[in-house]
Amino acid sequence: MTDRPPIAAVGTAFFAGLHTGWKATERHTAFLSALDDLQDAPGDLDEIATGHEILDERAGTEAGSPTPAQ
Q: What is the pTM of this model?
């Protein structure tokens, strides 16, 4: 994982300055919240798809194997 902010969030902040007022601020805040949720989704899906492998590694077994690895 990187410490850099996502490109979409940086672009959003750049263009947010073009629109002013409370309504624009509310829309920008709502958009950033939705964008954050959207960017979390691929990581969540990856964890669902590979979670059993991670648990097997921590338990000392191979994926799908009922006995510990030698």
A: 0.49
